[in-house]
Amino acid sequence: MKRVEWSWKGIAEFVGTLGVIGSLIFVAFQIQQNTRAIESGTIESILGHSYDAAVLAVENADLRAALTASCENELTADQRMMLTVYYQALLRLQLNRFFQVQLGIIDEETALGLGARSTPYGRPIFAEVWEAAKDEYSPEFQEFIERGVLPVVGTTC
Predict the structure, then answer these.
(1) What are phi and psi of 47, to 5 degrees?
(2) pLDDT of residue 91
(3) Can you list the alpha helix ranges (DSSP code H) found in 8-123?
(4) d(Cα 136, Cα 142) in Å, to the nearest integer?
(5) How confident is the model at residue 1 (pLDDT cuts 50, 70, 90)?
(6) Is-contact 110 142, C-beta < 8 A?
(7) Rg of the chain, C-alpha, whole Å
(8) Which of 76, 97, 103, 151 is the most buried (most CB within 10 A)?
(9) What is the pTM of this model?
(10) CA–CA distance, 118 with 126 (Å, rounded to integer)
(11) Mind listing the pLDDT tens digit for each residue in 41-58?
(12) Is residue 7 left, alpha or beta, with left meaning phi > 0 and alpha meaning psi from -120 to 50?
């Protein structure tokens, strides 16, 4: 029977190898934790922006009146301009969500579920604003909106 003799050098190499493997496992765990933290922060930020947009529609009487007028096809030029700017701001929120999907931070279904299928986008005026503004955006973003957001637009409010 052959006897294995351990030298101090062999033991040190073995312990060093275990240390390297342990360090790699720790780094992988930390990367996973960091990824989850980034995803969580992104979702929180997106929800915060969606909340701010909803609060704006609730607190701003002129915006509420414009939204009501859009449903009744009685928009003044000023109200149309207000809604155009409002929906362009909401499109910027969607663009942010789209970029988060592109970066792989969140998946598309999560991005769309974080407000893209909510009431403001369901109004026919959104489709009008989108049609006028869509050429300002990349074809990929246009597909994202047309695939994920436009289907919620109703023919009436």
Answers:
(1) -65, -35
(2) 93
(3) 8-59, 61-71, 77-102, 108-113, 119-122
(4) 9
(5) low
(6) no
(7) 26
(8) 97
(9) 0.70
(10) 12
(11) 777 777 777 777 778 888
(12) beta
